[in-house]
TrEMBL record:
PROSITE patterns found in the cross-reference section: SOLCAR (PS50920)
Renumbered ranges of Solcar repeats: 29-116, 132-220, 235-336
Record protein name field: Mitochondrial adenine nucleotide transporter ADNT1
Domain of life: Eukaryota
Subcellular localization(s) per the UniProt record: Mitochondrion inner membrane
Taxonomic lineage of the native organism: Eukaryota, Viridiplantae, Streptophyta, Embryophyta, Tracheophyta
Gene Ontology cellular component terms for the protein in this record: mitochondrial inner membrane
Bilayer topology term: Multi-pass membrane protein
Length: 345
């Protein structure tokens, strides 16, 4: 008698996965769902704070001798008055085109890096029940951040330029692909990676701390259950949002100076940007940077140490809800899609 074909549905495959037996189709489906969840999390979180994201970049690169944006509320009002509602979201389409794949790759890379690091850690200690420590989570988050940043950096570079341009700019990028082709033609392929080094250095503490603080806070709350926040071994959405907010605040404060330097290096070579200028005794001249260290030195020399934190206030207001929304959206979407494993698992 011919052997019967065994049909394994998704529910049975999920059961097998929990028991340690993973079929190829289940593994592929899980990967796709994880990437979709990460992409949705990135798009939702960034769109929610797009006006603050644009203001942050404008504050970072504005001419210190011609101040237009003088704070969060004033800056948002100025954009609304001069460019209207659409001005608040300028560059957001390009930002989402970058952040959706970036977020998808970042969350997925963190999951894979966590599994690999945990496997090595258990093998080294000989303890099969060992769990990730905050330091190991920091390492996994750093790996995820570097991979995601490198994969999508050209889009981040042109997104910065599109965000900075105004209606009065002599030259206009019409969109992400037009900006990419223009930069390639006029400045060469290396221009697409201007500021990559400070970005990678900055992403290590930023993304690393985001994941480490978020996951460690959740673990601590579940184990200690202060104020009765845990119900049925689960944290509420509000509590998880608070964990994400704390993670985002710590990560962005540590890495913010590198973000300022990255953005300024990205503007070098673009004659129509609102270039940062400095007095050199002979007048005001546009600043040019030979590298990351030179950019740090000139920024502090001409504008003071505080210039490294230009735009920190709107960035803080933006990062707190953005990171929180991203983490919680990721977990909620994975629950909706029926993925069994969360990032903390």
């Amino acid at each position: 008698m011919a052997s019967e074909t065994k049909v394994v549905n998704l529910a049975e495959e999920a059961k097998l996965a929990r028991e340690g037996v993973t079929t190829p189709s289940y593994a592929f489906t899980t990967i796709c769902k994880s990437l979709v969840a990460g992409g949705v999390a990135g798009g939702v979180s960034r769109t929610a704070v797009a006006p603050l994201e644009r203001l942050k970049i404008l504050l970072q690169v504005q001419n210190p001798h011609s101040i237009k944006y003088n704070g969060t509320i004033q800056g948002l009002k100025y954009i609304w008055r001069t460019e209207g509602f659409r001005g608040l979201f300028k560059g957001n389409g390009t930002n989402c085109a970058r952040i959706v794949p970036n977020s998808a790759v970042k969350f997925f890379s963190y999951e894979q890096a966590s599994k690999g690091i945990l496997h090595l850690y258990r093998k080294q200690t000989g303890n099969e029940d060992a769990q990730l420590t905050p330091l190991l989570r920091l390492g996994a988050g750093a790996c995820a951040g570097i991979i995601a940043m490198s994969a999508t950096y050209p889009m981040d570079m042109v997104r910065g330029r599109i965000t900075v341009q105004t209606e009065k700019s002599p030259y206009q990028y019409r969109g992400m692909f037009h900006a990419l082709s223009t930069v390639l033609r006029e400045e060469g392929p290396r221009a697409l990676y201007k500021g990559w080094l400070p970005s990678v250095i900055g992403v290590i503490p930023y993304v690393g701390l985001n994941f480490a603080v978020y996951e460690s806070l959740k673990d601590w709350l579940i184990k200690s259950n202060p104020l009765g926040l845990v119900q049925d071994s689960e944290l509420s959405v509000t509590t998880r949002l608070a964990c994400g907010a704390a993670a985002g605040t710590i990560g962005q404060t540590v890495a913010y100076p590198l973000d300022v330097i990255r953005r300024r290096m990205q503007m070098v070579g673009w004659n129509h940007a609102a270039s940062v200028v400095a007095g050199d005794g002979r007048g005001k001249v546009p600043l040019e940077y030979t590298g990351m260290v030179d950019a740090f030195r000139k920024t502090v020399r001409y504008e003071g140490f505080g210039a490294l934190y230009k735009g920190l206030v709107p960035n803080s207001v933006k990062v707190v809800p953005s990171i929180a929304i991203a983490f919680v959206t990721y977990e909620v979407v994975k629950d909706i899609l029926g993925v069994e494993i969360r990032i903390s698992d």
